[in-house]
Task: inverse folding
C-alpha cells in the first residue's frame, strides 16, 4: 500500500510532465527526497537511526545540492544534529560550496553551538560575500550574544546588498531599540513596512518601539515632576488601555485630558 508521500509524488509528477522531460535528474532528485522524507515520517528508514554516511548516500552520485535538500527536510523535522551531518556531507563533496557552510552555521546556531556557527558563517562569507541571508542570520546570532555593534554592522551589510530587505530592516530596528535609539529603530521599522506592507513582523516591532517610547516618556515625566507627580490621565497602564479602547470605540475623551490651558 502506498503511503501519503508516494501519492503526493505521483500528483506532482502528473502535473509537471514538462519538468520530467526537460530535466529528468531534477525530478529523480525530487522523487528521492520525497521518498526519503516519507520513509522518515513512517519510521521505516534506517536513515532515521543511523549516522549519515557520505560515502554511501541514499542515491548514487549525490551532489552537494542534494545534501542541502536533505538537511532542509531534517531541519523541518526537528532533527538538527542530523541536518548538520547532511550539510557536512555537502561540504565534504565540495569544500568551496558556500551555501553548505551557511546552512550548517544556521543549524549550529539552533543547537546553541555559537562558536561553530560563527566559524561557518565566516567561511561562507569568505567564499561568497554576497550571501545576504548569512549577514542576517549572523546578525541575529550577534544580537543574541549581546554584540549589538556587530549585529548592526551585519544588518547594514545586508542592506547594502538589498536595500529593501524586510528582515534586515526589522532586525536592525530591534537592535536599535535594545540600545535605546528609538528614532533609528522607528526609521527602520517604518522602512520595512514601506518595503512590504503585507509583512506583519515590522508592525509588531513598531508597536513594541512605541510602547518602549511611552514608558520612557512616563519615566521622564516622573523624574522631572518628582515621584509624587500625578499623571494627568491616570497610570501608564490605564492610559494605554484607554487609548486602545478609544481606537476601538471612537471615544477620544482620553486625549482631551492631556490638553492644558494657556496661562492667563
Result:
Amino acid at each position: 500500500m502506498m503511503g501519503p508521500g508516494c501519492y503526493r509524488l505521483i500528483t506532482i509528477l502528473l502535473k509537471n510532465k514538462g519538468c520530467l522531460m526537460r530535466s529528468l535528474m531534477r525530478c529523480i532528485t525530487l522523487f528521492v527526497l520525497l521518498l526519503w522524507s516519507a520513509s522518515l515520517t513512517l519510521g521505516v528508514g534506517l536513515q532515521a537511526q543511523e549516522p549519515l554516511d557520505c560515502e554511501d548516500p541514499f542515491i548514487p552520485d549525490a551532489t552537494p545540492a542534494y545534501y542541502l535538500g536533505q538537511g532542509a527536510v531534517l531541519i523541518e523535522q526537528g532533527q538538527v544534529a542530523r541536518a548538520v551531518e547532511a550539510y557536512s556531507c555537502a561540504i565534504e563533496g565540495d569544500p568551496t560550496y558556500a551555501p553548505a557552510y551557511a546552512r550548517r552555521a544556521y543549524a549550529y546556531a539552533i543547537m546553541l553551538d555559537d562558536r561553530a556557527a560563527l566559524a561557518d558563517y565566516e567561511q561562507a562569507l569568505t567564499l561568497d560575500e554576497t550571501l545576504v541571508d548569512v549577514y542576517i542570520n549572523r546578525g541575529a546570532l550577534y544580537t543574541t550574544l549581546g554584540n549589538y555593534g556587530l549585529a548592526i554592522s551585519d544588518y547594514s551589510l545586508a542592506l547594502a546588498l538589498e536595500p529593501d530587505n524586510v528582515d534586515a530592516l526589522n532586525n536592525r530596528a530591534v537592535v536599535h531599540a535594545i540600545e535605546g535609539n528609538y528614532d533609528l529603530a522607528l526609521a527602520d521599522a517604518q522602512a520595512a513596512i514601506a518595503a512590504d506592507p503585507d509583512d506583519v513582523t515590522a508592525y509588531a516591532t513598531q508597536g513594541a518601539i512605541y510602547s518602549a517610547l511611552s514608558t520612557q516618556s512616563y519615566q521622564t515625566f516622573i523624574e522631572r515632576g518628582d515621584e509624587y507627580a500625578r499623571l494627568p490621565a491616570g497610570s501608564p497602564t490605564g492610559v494605554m488601555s484607554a487609548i486602545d479602547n478609544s481606537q476601538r470605540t471612537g471615544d477620544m475623551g482620553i486625549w482631551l485630558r492631556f490638553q492644558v490651558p494657556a496661562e492667563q
In short: The radius of gyration is 26 Å.
